Amino acid sequence: MSGVLHVLLHMAEHEGPVTSEVLAKAMSTNPVVVRRVMAGLREQGYVRSTKGHRGGWELARRLEEISLRDVYEALGRPSFFAMGNRNNESTCLVERAVNAALDQTLSDAEALILARLDTVTLAMLSAEFHAGLPKDERDAEVCHAV
């Protein structure tokens, strides 16, 4: 998710479409992975693609219209947590009690995270990034990812 947010913000700074190859370099991945990820964002109407010599990906909505939760949902709701139950089908009463406690705790934590992601837009991240730039660098690209 972090890599996708990174390239979306770079795309907002870039005039015109950005190729999958360029985005792949920014995300340290393969262009095929970028196309797969961007396809999910395109299906939700957050990006669009154009084919041809000057083709590539570009934002389809204003940054104010895209929340971090929107991006999370478009990416297929990846898991927030690497921990979980050791065995979901246990007959052991102790393990079942542990599972129930963990399930409830993780569910509560996920609800809090989703609520927070709803309140943050790409425009807010862009404003924060621009505010942190030294005055003489505001028109320069901060990192050369895109």
Automatic annotation (TrEMBL):
It comes from the Bacteria. InterPro entries: Tscrpt_reg_Rrf2 (IPR000944), WH-like_DNA-bd_sf (IPR036388), WH_DNA-bd_sf (IPR036390). This is Rrf2 family protein. It comes from Rhodopseudomonas julia.
